[in-house]
Input
Amino acid sequence: MDPVSLFPAGYVASRVIGMAVDVPVGLHPWERHPERPNRLTVDVEMFAAPGDGIVDYDPVRDLVRGWSARPHVEWLETLAEELLAQCFTEPRVMAVRVRVMKRTIFAEAEGAGIEVFRTRA
Output
């Protein structure tokens, strides 16, 4: 789904792009070594209606930075769901797009990861 269809009068997107953080995440045996966390990049886009004021992206940044201290998690989707929940604590946010990419997981790829786009229920 494209945010344009949600906002016929346009939208304002607050973005934090390319946040880098080392996180103990992954399902594979080689990803379970605490001394070698996965390098992630995280992109977040929070969509609001024009005129609703600014959306503070500091809580999003704080959450992502805190991931480096969390216990191991198997799924990127777990991290994405946490991030989505944080974004929707801001009442002006009507839709969110989150991308979480493992940057060094495969030598032949720039990264592998997920993207989630969700609208407010």
